[in-house]
Prior knowledge:
It is a single chain. This protein is α+β, with helices and mostly antiparallel strands. It is about 25% helix and about 30% strand. The chain has five helices and eleven strands, in the order H-E-H-E-E-E-E-H-E-H-E-E-E-E-H-E. It has a six-stranded antiparallel β-sheet. Strands 1-2-3-4-5 form a five-stranded antiparallel β-sheet, with helices on one face. A hairpin with a 4-residue loop joins strand 8 and strand 9. It is globular and about 60 Å long. It starts with 19 loop residues before the first helix and ends in a 13-residue tail after the last strand. The relative contact order is 0.13.
Amino acid sequence: MQPRRTPPPAPPGGPRAAAPMPALLLLLLPLLLAVRGAAAGSAGSEDPGWRPDPARQPGLLLQAARAALHFFNSRAASPSALRAVSAVQRGRAWVNSKKERKVDLVFTTERYNPEEGEERMGKCSARVVFRNEKPRPAVNVTCTRFIEKSKRQQEDYLLYKHMKQLKTPLDVVSIPDSHGHIDPSLRPIWELAFLGGSYVMWEKTTQVSHYYMAQLSSLKQWKTNDNAIDFDYTVLLHEFPTQEIIPCRIHLVWYPGKPLKVKYHCHGLQTPEEASGIEEGSAVAPTELSNF
């Protein structure tokens, strides 16, 4: 029988055999948290029902940018500060079991009718949710300052004052004319009408269809007892990808610095609930205009 050996004495300061494990965990904890955060970021939402869209349609990011900017233009309600999409810088898309698509993106914009020599570019970030093939996507959009507030207010007020002082209310046949030309004196009227058109185009946009305002016709300004500008007009919307031309009759009430009031009815192949709408200035989808 082998004699039992005496275990070696413990090192000074007490036993340290269990120390490496907690120390290792502490060292690995930041790495584990980083991996977990990356996984959460790839999901794109705290809602587990969303997953990265593996079959994102070509042009979905641009489609989302158009919808967000139509929404922004109609909410800003400033004809002197209309924006147009310049380019999409980056974006991601997710899909859920209902085939709804959520898009987060950043895109640049330019002034709709820039003046020579002025700074044209701006930037917007947005989240747009397309409800399958249904119109009226949900939009949350933030845009950087694009034009100085004082300049925007001054230009809007000059247009307002001009329209209010007309001895005979406007009665315009067609903008642009048959040659595609917009008289400079009518450009502010086109841009004011474009605000109402932006609201309609946002409401009618889906995952696969978008619109351009091709022509403004039959504009009739009404004399009112209050301070607002009140007029009716018809726009021709060019629908893509069908290439259809859809006439929409719009009633617009505008006062500088106040929300738009829009009523409209469009003719076409849409169902009745898709063909008409009303906007009385209340926010029907979240937006952020504080940096406008």
